[in-house]
Amino acid sequence: MSRRALLTAGFLLTARLPAGTPLRAEAPQGTNESRLPSLGSESAPLPAGAGKNLALASCSVCHSTEMLRQQRLSRSQWTAELNKMIGWGARVAPQDKAVLLDYLAKRFGPANSRFRPLLSPPSGE
Question: Is residue 59 part of a domain?
Fold first, then answer.
C-alpha cells in the first residue's frame, strides 16, 4: 500500500471519531504498561554519519528507526536487504546506494550494540 493510501486511510479513520476522542492511548498507572511509550512516541535517532540522511529519506518512509537500529547484518546481508527494498519501491538513487550501504553496514553490522529494545504492549490490547 502506498504512503498516500495509508495517510488517506488514517485520515478517514480519525475523521469518524467523535470530537474530543484522544488519539494517544495512556496506560493505567502502576502496571507494566505504564512504562511503555504512548502511541505517537518518537523513535530513537539514528547515529550520525555519512548516509544518515539517506537512511532517513529512504528507509524511514516505511520503517521506524528502531527497525534499523536493531539490525546486526553483515555487509552482504545489507546488500541483499537493500536490493530487496529497492525492488519493493524504496527510493534510492543509484549514486547514493554505496553511501547508504556503507552507513548501514558500519552502524548496524554484527557488532551493533546500540539497540536497546523499546517495550511495547502486544497488539490487540
Answer: yes
